[in-house]
Design goal:
With about 80 residues, the chain is mostly helical. The chain has helices at about 5-20, 25-30, 35-55, 55-65, 70-80. It has five helices and no strands. It is globular and about 35 Å long.
């Protein structure tokens, strides 16, 4: 496991992008492992947006259950997935 660093964050973001369509739950886990808060929120938003396209029920349940974000951040993430 790589130590928390910008390099690790970029690697996690790349993995999340690679997995977002084939395994959105794994992509979300990689995105939420990013240390930089703004990057974590942005990357998770991208994953959630894609996940809502392919499996909206699963995406909504994951977002509701995750403890990686506070209620306000969850609202922002949910808004990103709206058309």
């Amino acid at each position: 496991s790589l130590p928390v660093s910008p390099s690790r964050d970029h690697a996690a973001a790349a993995l999340a992008m690679h997995l977002e369509r084939s395994d959105p739950e794994a992509a979300a886990l990689w995105a939420t492992s990013i240390g930089d808060h703004a990057m974590r929120l942005s990357q998770t938003g991208r994953v959630i947006d894609t996940w809502f396209e392919v499996a909206p029920e699963a995406a909504a349940l994951w977002l509701e259950d995750t403890d990686r974000f506070d209620a306000g951040e969850k609202v922002k993430l949910r808004a990103l997935s709206q058309p």
